[in-house]
C-alpha cells in the first residue's frame, strides 16, 4: 500500500510532465479504437442491408456461368423465364418473381452529367419487384409502369437535385434509352452510397439484358411452415443442377464476405499505421520515465536507505506507468469514437453514406484499446523502472544524476552495428533478387533489421552526426550555439531515442516518396517508348466502353484509325499438354503501331492474321512454345479453336506484360455477338498534323458519354501522377499521426530537460545569459535533434525505397527517381518542427526566477 501511495503521489506531482506522454498514448489508442468502431459500423450498415434485402431463397446462374460473362460484355449472366415458372410451381413456394439487376450502366441527366454513385459505390439499374419492398418504400410518386418511366432512390434524387418529371438517360451495353422520373423510393435502412434506378420488368429486360424473358435471379418466398433450408432443397430438386441456390442467410453471408474483404484491407492498413504510432510513442514514454527516474535519483536513494527494496522501487515506477496507461487509454477510447464519426463524415463527402444511427461500439473495442495502451506503456517503462531499482543507495545520495553504464553502452553499440549491417546486407540482397516475389520477403527483413539497428545505434551516431550538424547550423551563433550542441550531446541515449521517434515516420515518408516517384517516372518512360497512339479513351473506374460510344468515335473527322482493345477468358492448352484459364487480349491490326511491343521472335503483325496469335516470352519459356507451334484455345463463351503462334513478345516492360494477343476478327469469328466483350480501352491516332483538331473532335463525339475520358499522352501521364499522388497523400495523412507523436516526444524531452537543468539555467542567467539567448539555446537544441532524426529517417527511407524499386524493375518499372524536392521539403520542415516543439519549453525556461533556480537542488 505504501508503494501504491508513493507512486500515486509521484504521478500527480509530475502530472504536467506526464501529460504529453498521456496524449501520445491517447492518440495511438484513439486511432486503434476509431478504426475498430468505424469498421464495425460499416459492417453493421451492410449487415442490416444484406439481411433485409435477402429473399427466403434466391436462384442465380452458377458461379461458372457468371465467370463466363466476365469478358466485359456489359450484360450480366441471365436465367430464362422457364426457370421462374419451375420455381413458382415448386411445392412450398408462396410466391416467386424474377429480378433484373445490372451494375454496368451509366445514368446521366438532361445536361449529360453523370448522376450515378461516386466514391466507388455502384450505380444499379433493375426492375421494381415486391422483394424491393423489404428495404425500400415509395415516398413520392409511383412505381414505373411503362417503357418511359423510372423511379430513383431518395438519396440520389437529393444529391443530384432530381425531382418527379425530370428526364434521365440510361447508357448500357444494349443501347441508350430515355425515361422520365415518376417516383422516388426511400431506403428503410442506411444506403451505403449506391445509386439505384428502377424500371418496369420488360424495359429492364430489353435495355439491360438485350431481350425480354430473361432474369438475373429468381426470388422465392416460403409458404407458412416451410423453412428456408427445406425450400432450397425443394427448389434444387425441381431445377436440377447448374444453378446457385442460396437461402436468405447464405445470401447475406455472401454479401458480407464480399464487403468484408474490402473492409479487412482498410481495417488492417489503418491498424498498421496505429501500430507505427504506438512504436513512436514507446520512445516518448521511455524518455519520459528515464528522465523522471534520473531527476528523482536522490529521492530513490533515500527510499533505498530507509529500507525500500529494488522490487519496491521498480514496482513504484511501473505503477506510475500503469496510471499513465489507464488515463491515456480511457481518453483514447473516447476520442476513438470521435475519430470514427469523423471518418464516417469523410466517407460521406466521398459518396459513401454511413449513419450515426448505426454507430457500433462493441464491448471488445474499449477492452482492446485499454489493454493495448496499458501493456505498451508498462513495457516502455520497464527499462527505466529496472534501471531505477538498480541504483545503489550511496551512489544515489552522492550523485543527483543516474550513472551511466559504459559496458552496456558498448554492448548496445555492438548490437546496433550487427543489426544495421544485417539490414544493409538484406537490402543489398533485395537488389540482386531474380523474382519480385522472392525479393519481397528479403526486403521486409532488411527494413526491420535496418530500422532496429539505427534505433539501437542511435546514441553512438548522435555523437558524430550532431557534431557535424552543429558545425553547419550552430557554431555561427557563438557560445549560445556551442551550449546548445553540448546539451544535445550531454545524454546521447536520450537524444538518440528522441530522434528515433521522428526517424520512423520520416523513413516511411521517404520510402513511399521514392517508390511513388519511381512508379510515375517508369510509367512515363514506358509510355514515351512504347505508346505510339495519340489518344487513349477509357474510364477512371475501369468500366468497359459501350459499343455505341465506339460507333460515335468512328465518325470523328481528323482521326486516322481507332484500335479496339478487348479481353476474354479462354482455356489455353500448350503443346506440352498443360492447360490453364488465361486472359486473351483481342486487338485490331493497328495495335502494333499504337503500342510498340518488343518482339523476341516472329512477326507481331502476322499474329493478327486468321488463325494466329502471339504469346509472352515467359509463357513461351515455361511451356517450350516456339514460333509456328499450335495452341488450343477454348473460348469460355465461344468455340474451341487451334491458333498458330506467329510471334513471341518480350515481357520486359510494364505495359501488357505476358499478354496473349489475337485479332478482333478472330474473336468475332469464334465468340457469338451477344457474348462479345466490350472494349476495355480505345487507342486512336490523328491524321498527320491534325492532333489538336482530332482531340477536340473526339471529345465532341463522346460528349453524350461523360463516363469516358479522352486523353492525349500528356494528359494520361498527369492522370497517373495524380492517382499515385492521391494515394501517397492518404498514406502521408495516416503517417502524420506518428509524426505528431514524435513531435510530442521532442516537446516532452525538452520540457523535462529544462526541469533537469533548472539550477544550471539559473547559474547561466546569473552570469549574464539573457532570456532571449536562453530561449535560442533551447530552440537550437530542439532543431539539432529534429534535423538529426530527419537525416536518419530520410537516409534510411531512401535506402528502403531504392531497394523496393529494384523489385519494381523486375515487374517492368525500371526507372529510379529520387523526389529531391519532396525530400528537401521534408528536411526543411523537420527543422521547423524542431522550432515548434521548443516553443513552450523555451518560454517556460525564460520565465524562471533566477534565485529560485539557483537554489534548486
From TrEMBL:
Keyword Membrane on entry: yes
Keywords for the protein's UniProt record, in alphabetical order: Cell membrane, Membrane, Transmembrane, Transmembrane helix
Pfam families on file: FtsX, MacB_PCD
Localisation per UniProt entry: Cell membrane
Region (Disordered): 58-78
Residues that span the membrane, as ranges: 268-294, 317-343, 363-385, 410-429, 441-474, 495-515, 730-755, 782-803, 823-843
Membrane topology: Multi-pass membrane protein
Domain MacB-like periplasmic core: 19-236, 495-696
Ranges of residues in domain ABC3 transporter permease C-terminal: 273-393, 734-849
PANTHER family: ABC TRANSPORTER PERMEASE YTRF (PTHR30572:SF4), MEMBRANE COMPONENT OF TRANSPORTER-RELATED (PTHR30572)
Family: Belongs to the ABC-4 integral membrane protein family.
Annotated protein name in UniProt: FtsX-like permease family protein
Annotated organism of origin: Streptomyces albipurpureus
Native organism taxonomy: Bacteria, Bacillati, Actinomycetota, Actinomycetes, Kitasatosporales
Amino acid at each position: 500500500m505504501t508503494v501504491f501511495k508513493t507512486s500515486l503521489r509521484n504521478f500527480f506531482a509530475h502530472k504536467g510532465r506526464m501529460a504529453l506522454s498521456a496524449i501520445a498514448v491517447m492518440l495511438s489508442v484513439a486511432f486503434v479504437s476509431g478504426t475498430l468502431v468505424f469498421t464495425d459500423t460499416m459492417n453493421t450498415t451492410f449487415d442490416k442491408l444484406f439481411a433485409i434485402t435477402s429473399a427466403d431463397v434466391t436462384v442465380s446462374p452458377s458461379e461458372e456461368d457468371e465467370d463466363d460473362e466476365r469478358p466485359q460484355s456489359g450484360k450480366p449472366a441471365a436465367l430464362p423465364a422457364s426457370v421462374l415458372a419451375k420455381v413458382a410451381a415448386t411445392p412450398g413456394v408462396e410466391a416467386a418473381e424474377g429480378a433484373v439487376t445490372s451494375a454496368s450502366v451509366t445514368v446521366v441527366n438532361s445536361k449529360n452529367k453523370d448522376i450515378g454513385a461516386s466514391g466507388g459505390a455502384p450505380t444499379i439499374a433493375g426492375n421494381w419487384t415486391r422483394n424491393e419492398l423489404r428495404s425500400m418504400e415509395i415516398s413520392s410518386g409511383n412505381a414505373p409502369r411503362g417503357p418511359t418511366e423510372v423511379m430513383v432512390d431518395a438519396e440520389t434524387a437529393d444529391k443530384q437535385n432530381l425531382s418527379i418529371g425530370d428526364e434521365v438517360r440510361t447508357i448500357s451495353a444494349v443501347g441508350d434509352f430515355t425515361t422520365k422520373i415518376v417516383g422516388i423510393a426511400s431506403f428503410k435502412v442506411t444506403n451505403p452510397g449506391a445509386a439505384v434506378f428502377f424500371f418496369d420488368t420488360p424495359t429492364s429486360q430489353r435495355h439491360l439484358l438485350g431481350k425480354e424473358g430473361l432474369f438475373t435471379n429468381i426470388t422465392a418466398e416460403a409458404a407458412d411452415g416451410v423453412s428456408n433450408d427445406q425450400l432450397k432443397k425443394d427448389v434444387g430438386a425441381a431445377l436440377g443442377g447448374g444453378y446457385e441456390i442460396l437461402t436468405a442467410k447464405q445470401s447475406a453471408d455472401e454479401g458480407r464476405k464480399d464487403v468484408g474483404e474490402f473492409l479487412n484491407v482498410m481495417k488492417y492498413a489503418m491498424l498498421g499505421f496505429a501500430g507505427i504510432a504506438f512504436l513512436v510513442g514507446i520512445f516518448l514514454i521511455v524518455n519520459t520515465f528515464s528522465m523522471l527516474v534520473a531527476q528523482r535519483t536522490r529521492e530513490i536513494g533515500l527510499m533505498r536507505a530507509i529500507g525500500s527494496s529494488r522490487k519496491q522501487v521498480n514496482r513504484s515506477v511501473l505503477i506510475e506507468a500503469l496510471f499513465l496507461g489507464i488515463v491515456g487509454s480511457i481518453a483514447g477510447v473516447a476520442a476513438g469514437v470521435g475519430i470514427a464519426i469523423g471518418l464516417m463524415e469523410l466517407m460521406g463527402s466521398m459518396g459513401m453514406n454511413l449513419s450515426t444511427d448505426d454507430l457500433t461500439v462493441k464491448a471488445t473495442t474499449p477492452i482492446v484499446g485499454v489493454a493495448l495502451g496499458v501493456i505498451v506503456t508498462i513495457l516502455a517503462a520497464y527499462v527505466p523502472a529496472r534501471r531505477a531499482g538498480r541504483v545503489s543507495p550511496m551512489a544515489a545520495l552522492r550523485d543527483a544524476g543516474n550513472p551511466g553504464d559504459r559496458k552496456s553502452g558498448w554492448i548496445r553499440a555492438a548490437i546496433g552495428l550487427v543489426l544495421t549491417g544485417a539490414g544493409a546486407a538484406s537490402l543489398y540482397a533485395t537488389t540482386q533478387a531474380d523474382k519480385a516475389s522472392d525479393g519481397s520477403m528479403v526486403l521486409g527483413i532488411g527494413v526491420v533489421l535496418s530500422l532496429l539497428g539505427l534505433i539501437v545505434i542511435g546514441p553512438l551516431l548522435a555523437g558524430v552526426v550532431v557534431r557535424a550538424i552543429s558545425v553547419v547550423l550552430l557554431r555561427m551563433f557563438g557560445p549560445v550555439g556551442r551550449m546548445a550542441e553540448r546539451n544535445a550531446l550531454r545524454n546521447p541515449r536520450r537524444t538518440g531515442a528522441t530522434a528515433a521517434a521522428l526517424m520512423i515516420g520520416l523513413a516511411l515518408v521517404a520510402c513511399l516518396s521514392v517508390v511513388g516517384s519511381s512508379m510515375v517516372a517508369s510509367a512515363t518512360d514506358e509510355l514515351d517508348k512504347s505508346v505510339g497512339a495519340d489518344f487513349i479513351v477509357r474510364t477512371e473506374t475501369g468500366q468497359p466502353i459501350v459499343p455505341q460510344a465506339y460507333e460515335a468515335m468512328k465518325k470523328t473527322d481528323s482521326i486516322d484509325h481507332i484500335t479496339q482493345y478487348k479481353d476474354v477468358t479462354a482455356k489455353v492448352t500448350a503443346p506440352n499438354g498443360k492447360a490453364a484459364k488465361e486472359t486473351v487480349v483481342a486487338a485490331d491490326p493497328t495495335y502494333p503501331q499504337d503500342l510498340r511491343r518488343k518482339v523476341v521472335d516472329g512477326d507481331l503483325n502476322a499474329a493478327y492474321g486468321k488463325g494466329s496469335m502471339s504469346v509472352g516470352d515467359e509463357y513461351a519459356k515455361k511451356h517450350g512454345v516456339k514460333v509456328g507451334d499450335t495452341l488450343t484455345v477454348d473460348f469460355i463463351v465461344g468455340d474451341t479453336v487451334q491458333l498458330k503462334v506467329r510471334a513471341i513478345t518480350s515481357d520486359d516492360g510494364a505495359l501488357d506484360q505476358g499478354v496473349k494477343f489475337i485479332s478482333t476478327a478472330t474473336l468475332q469469328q469464334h465468340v457469338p455477338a451477344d457474348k462479345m466483350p466490350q472494349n476495355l480501352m480505345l487507342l486512336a491516332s490523328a491524321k498527320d498534323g491534325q492532333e489538336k483538331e482530332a482531340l477536340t473532335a473526339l471529345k465532341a463525339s463522346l460528349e453524350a458519354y461523360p463516363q469516358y475520358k479522352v486523353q492525349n499522352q500528356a494528359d494520361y501521364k498527369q492522370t497517373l501522377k495524380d492517382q499515385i499522388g492521391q494515394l501517397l497523400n492518404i498514406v502521408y495523412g495516416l503517417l502524420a499521426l506518428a509524426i505528431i507523436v514524435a513531435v510530442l516526444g521532442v516537446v516532452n524531452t525538452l520540457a523535462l530537460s529544462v526541469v533537469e537543468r533548472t539550477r544550471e539555467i539559473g547559474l547561466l542567467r546569473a552570469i549574464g545569459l539573457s532570456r532571449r539567448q536562453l530561449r535560442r539555446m533551447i530552440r537550437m537544441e530542439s532543431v539539432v535533434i529534429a534535423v538529426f532524426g530527419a537525416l536518419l529517417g530520410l537516409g534510411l527511407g531512401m535506402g528502403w525505397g531504392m531497394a523496393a524499386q529494384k523489385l519494381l524493375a523486375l515487374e517492368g518499372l525500371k526507372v529510379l527517381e529520387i523526389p529531391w524536392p519532396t525530400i528537401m521539403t521534408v528536411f526543411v520542415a523537420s527543422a521547423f518542427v524542431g522550432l515548434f516543439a521548443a516553443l513552450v519549453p523555451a518560454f517556460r525556461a525564460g520565465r524562471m526566477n533566477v534565485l529560485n533556480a539557483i537554489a534548486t537542488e
